[in-house]
Design a protein that fits this description.
single chain; alpha/beta; 5 strands; disordered N terminus
Length: 274
Amino acid sequence: MARGWLGILAGLGLAGLLFLIFLLSGFNKAKDNSPGQAGAVATTTASSQVGDEYLALGDSVAFGVGASSPEQLGYPGVFYDQYLKKVRPEIVTYKNFALPGETIASFSNRSKSQSQLDRTLEELKTTRKAGHKVSLISLTIGGNDLLAARPKSQIEKTAVLEQLDNNFQAILAQLGPRLAESKTELIVTTYYNPYGGLVGSDDVTWIKRFNEIIQKRATEYNFKVADFFEPVLGHEKNLTWIERGDIHPNVAGHAALANALWQATGYPSPATTS
């Protein structure tokens, strides 16, 4: 049998042998481009944008207060489970450092415990040393500062906004270099108005002014911004607990905020990667 094959090859000559090799090469390429292989390549390309870890920072809204299960049904948990996990289910992990009652000042400076800012800088350093990557951080902060300023005069509110701006810039200035070093993306969220009312009312005016500060400073640092204002506007009774005197989002509200955060990422839709 072996002699028979040798005889055939000898009879083909050099030109025939090269033609046979060409045919076999085309067959192997066809196998490599099978639907299963192509799907795997497409999924890997899409998922490579997400990375190893998602970290949520901020106040009670970022913590998930208002949801029946804050860790799972708060907006960061929904964002992780319903969006990130579907894009890269085996690699993406989720941590939430948010603290109810957190202000912009306490975010970066706590006298009796480690601040969120310090924990975040440490997390970036630790994961990098371990060969991993915090690819995405979301930050929702400033709501408690706005609530505290709500009964104050116009002059006092202006002073509060100026201080918020200064503190916010200080946070971004400390985060910026470390995020660039770790190639970590930051998405800052604006704030919604739980009280409703028409545009031009006092609450809307001050929240919109604060959101303008967030947008301006985030743009200066080339960070993305997720709009939490528009999805809630006109739907306050359906998306928050305001009728019970609670400004926090309900389950539907947290889901709406999660979707707004996803829209800001620019990542492909989970439906296109399945």
